[in-house]
Amino acid sequence: MEMPADTPNYPPEASSAAKGVVTSLLLAVKMFSLYADDHAHCRSALTRIHEHIESFLRDYGELVFQVEKSRLVFDHKGVYQGSEKEGDIAFALFRDGILDLRFQKGIESEETRTFLRILDRYKTLPAEAEGDIVTALWEAELPHIRYQAADNILETEAEAEAKSLEKSSGEAKGAWGGSVPLEMHMIAENIMERAQGVKELPSIDLAAVQLTAEEARKLEEMVSEEEERDGTREILDMMADILRSQEDESFFGVVLDFLEEELSAALYSGEFEISFRIMKRVHQIRQLCEDYRPWALSLVDEFMGRISTADFLEPLGESLAIINESQLKMAGKTLYMFPSSAIGILAPMLPKAPSSVVRAVLSKVVEGLAARDFRPLEKILENGNEDLLCRLVPLLGHMKDNKSAQALLNMARHPSARVRRLGLKTVISRGLWAPERLMSLIDDESDGIRQLFLKYLGAHRSEAAETQLLIYLRDRKARRGDQKHLVACFRALGRCGVGKSLPFLQDTLLSGRWFSKFFSSPRREGAAAALAELGTEESEEVLEAACDSRYPGIRRAAQFAVSDGSVSEDMP
């Protein structure tokens, strides 16, 4: 429906809102060209552009765009720069004689849908097109989408030149109020004459136009190629182009919102190749921002934050449960490109993983994300339940940084015996050495943990371990009634000792009241075993002297310690 060319007065901030509408329009038309109208992508695009239009109308009133040859203008400023080629929205509107477009309050969603269909259908015209944008808008009679058009489609470019000439000569004529130029009349008359001279077309022989086998094959290939066209890739390419050239913050944010929707749809439908491409493109865009548009970094980081939330990621578990192994591999590559904050959502999925293969992929992702930033995993380790921690602790064994080492030592002292044991085993497998941090385990309520810790202490010679065991055996009593544990502590002292404990062991073996020397005791037996494990020349001399002692208790303890069975015996 045609309208006069008056333009409202807009405040400066309206320009950003208008650019947002244009972005939504471009992307929505692209969606409609790639998918059926009822596809989720098209529904989402329609909702978004309609909301943008309504928001503008609510805040600023009527929305007016002027149409130039390859761009759209809002309030005398360009809000979209296209190109003079088929398929470009601005060029298509200009080609069909549209001078301006107006969106008015009260617009219905179905009007917006019809408008998108028209743009999609006529943005590229075949050689013998039936209709155009102006005709389609006139037939649709959209009450809240109005337009001004040239009286004759052929007028557009010629009339623009005429306006320029009029302006330069100082003539003040109406832009479209004059008569159609003579050249246009001549063209029209020529067309009519040719049309009157056309003879009736002959009937078609259907047998003569049947496809050959080769033609049929080529046609089938063309159809197949069209069906397999990667619509998401095209959308991503278009978005990347927009982002590369865009300087407006709100416009940039709108495009990132579309990327977010595409990513969500791809993740939940198990299309991880698509989701991987989206994440890869977002990282490329972020790099472009670092190099050329630092102002946009915060918007990309906000996008990354939104896709790392529970609402966005938790439904992912359903997709992981039904995809095959090759898709799982791609899922892992995709999730590895998420921010480290995603650990807070991905890690709790581990105990509920539907299979060991899915669990392995998630574990690898969590481990990789934590290597970039350990803080999200650290937070979970502080507050996680026992089942979750038992899935996470082994991951700490594969890491190399100091923060993960400190967290692993904390897990070895966790209130849960199950977590403590797993933490200590992982400490040993990773090769961490911190006996002073773990000495509380020597009196652990679990016999298995006590034994494992003593094995850890006796694994190699260490003055630090020797010192800790000396302090324990001198100043503290072993668990009451656990004589086996006491002997094991002495044996660990001998295995880790570097000689500092020799005087203590000698005194423990040989001293005591004369009456006690007639009988063996756990401490005396332990000291003899420690001297045998120490294996120095001095310790062997002490044992030899003890073997010849006149006191039976000392003699038996020393002889037992130097026997092959005792010295070579593994620690309990």
Main β sheet profile:
5 strands, antiparallel
Apparent shape: rod-shaped
Rounded to the nearest angstrom, the radius of gyration is 41 Å
Query: Level of helix content?
Result: 55-70%
Work out the helix count. 29
Please list the strands of the largest sheet in the order they lie side by side.
3-2-1-4-5
Number of strands: 5
Strand content: under 5%
Terminal CA distance? 93 Å
Low-confidence stretches: 152-158, 162-195, 225-229, 564-572
* Class from helix and strand fractions: mainly alpha
Q: What is the overall pLDDT average?
A: 82
Characterization of this structure:
The protein has 572 residues and is mainly alpha-helical. Among the domains are: 1-158, no CATH class; 459-572. It has 29 helices and five strands. Strands 3-2-1-4-5 form a five-stranded antiparallel sheet. A hairpin with a 2-residue loop joins strand 2 (71-74) and strand 3 (77-81). Helix 21 packs parallel to helix 22 (447-457). The chain is rod-shaped. Residues 152-158, 162-195, 225-229 and 564-572 have low confidence and may be disordered.
Task: State the gist of this model.
This protein has 572 residues and is mainly alpha-helical.
Topology:
Blueprint: H1 14-34, H2 40-60, E1 63-67, E2 71-74, E3 77-81, H3 89-95, E4 98-103, H4 109-122, H5 133-140, E5 145-149, H6 155-169, H7 182-196, H8 213-227, H9 231-245, H10 249-268, H11 272-292, H12 297-306, H13 310-313, H14 316-320, H15 325-335, H16 343-346, H17 356-372, H18 375-383, H19 386-396, H20 402-411, H21 417-430, H22 447-457, H23 463-475, H24 483-496, H25 502-510, H26 522-534, H27 537-547, H28 552-562, H29 564-567
Helix pairs in contact: 1-2, 1-4, 1-9, 1-10, 2-4, 4-5, 9-10, 9-11, 10-11, 10-12, 11-15, 15-17, 17-19, 19-21, 20-21, 21-22, 22-24, 23-24, 24-26, 25-26, 25-27, 26-27, 26-28, 27-28
